[in-house]
Each structure stands twice: as C-alpha cells, then as structure tokens.
Design a protein that fits this description.
Length: 102
C-alpha cells in the first residue's frame, strides 16, 4: 500500500508470490483516506512515497506492476516482512544486522 498525502491518493497492491504484485485498489481524496484506514485496520503496512504513488496510480485495477518497479516493490515487501518478524525458512542473520530482541 502506498499513499501520497499531498494529493491524497492511495494505491493498494496484492502479492501472492508467483507473479508480479497486482493493483487491487486505488483512489483519490476521501476514497484514498478510506483505503488507507481500511489497510491499517487490517494490519497492512502503509508506505508513503509521493513518486511511487504517482507511478502506481497510473495503473489500472487488476494490472500487474511493470518490471521497472520490481526492485523497489520487492525491497518494500521484504522490508515489510522483516518489520513483521517474518523471515524465509532458510534465512540466516549472517551480518547480524537485525536485532531479534523485543
């Protein structure tokens, strides 16, 4: 989920692991506020990035993100997993950069 507070736009992505993330919701103004509120209500992380939001808002519902956005979206998905304490099964903290203490 990305949002652009200056223009009140929001775009939601769904990623199921087999294909590129897909646009599942998008809106402006009050609808954008509703999308963000609903996402937060369901524990979905919201990322604010004006430029990314502008790019994603140009896509149609059901459309997959273009390959030019794969890396940035993959990094956001991976970071959101880390924030939620989710790691791949065979992942090892070899660089000791993540503190598992709560």
């Amino acid at each position: 989920m990305t949002e652009n507070k200056q223009q009140k736009t929001a775009t939601a992505l769904q990623y199921q692991g087999k294909q590129a993330p897909t646009i599942t919701a998008k809106g402006h103004g009050e609808l954008a506020d509703d999308i963000v509120a609903l996402a937060r209500e369901h524990g979905i992380l919201v990322h604010q990035d004006d430029e990314l939001s502008k790019l994603l808002s140009q896509l149609e519902l059901g459309e997959q993100i273009p390959k030019e956005l794969y890396i940035v979206i993959a990094e956001l998905i991976a970071f959101s997993y880390v924030l939620q304490g989710k790691f791949p099964e065979n992942w090892h903290n070899i660089h000791q950069r993540i503190d598992f203490k709560t």
